[in-house]
Amino acid sequence: MDQMRQLVLVGFMGAGKTTVGAQLATKMNTYQRDLDQLIEQRLGETIASYFDRVGEHQFRQFETQILQEYADQSAILSTGGGIVMQTINRQILKQSSAPVVYLRTQPEELLHRLKDDLDRPLLKQMDHAAFIKLWQYREPLYQEVADVTIETDQLTPTQIVSEIINQL
Ligand code: S3P
């Protein structure tokens, strides 16, 4: 397990990237960096408020900047669900020496998990049909960057962690 010090987690919002990343970090005796948290720290503002103020386009540019800084750092990096939307981000992820793990969760399960979530700006703008459409749009983009895909619907975070360790 010692060689596996770096890893990037991708997946749709609600897939469990931050929770799994934290558990994985403990198990691998390393630390997790959460891209959304890094963005918020740098901005001194929540993503929801930044999103409302400047819009998605500017948020994406800032997200790329932070990804560029941290993609090759020696740690577990959890990313925001929209990280694969930008071609440049996909290139950064593919070029990174860190294996990219896609936590794949079906949209119905995600909708169930996120139904009371008020913090995610994109959710506020979407009905169920739009959510599923976005999931379908992003799905091949996650696959494009992923070295490993884990189907997470039936698994607890602890089981997902074991599965990741088994597969890498
Ligand atoms: C987004 C997901 C969020 C956050 C931002 C945009 C998206 O991260 O980066 O609100 O486009 O799916 P999580 O996947 O951690 O919710």
Would you kindly provide a written description of the structure presented here, covering whatever features stand out?
- By secondary structure, the protein is an alpha/beta fold.
- It has one domain (7-157): 3-Layer(aba) Sandwich (Rossmann fold).
- 55% of the residues lie in helices and 11% in strands.
- It has nine helices and five strands.
- It has helices at 17-27, 35-43, 47-54, 56-70, 87-95, 107-114, 121-124, 128-145, 157-167; strands at 7-10, 32-34, 76-78, 100-104, 148-151.
- The chain has a five-stranded parallel beta sheet with strand order 2-3-1-4-5, with helices on both faces.
- The protein is globular and about 40 Å long.
- The mean pLDDT is 93.
- Shikimate-3-phosphate binds next to helix 7.
- Residues 13, 36, 47, 80-82, 120-122 line the site of shikimate-3-phosphate.
- Its main location: cytoplasm.
- Substrate binds at residues 36, 60, 81, 138.
- Belongs to the shikimate kinase family.
- Monomer.
- Catalyzes the specific phosphorylation of the 3-hydroxyl group of shikimic acid using ATP as a cosubstrate.
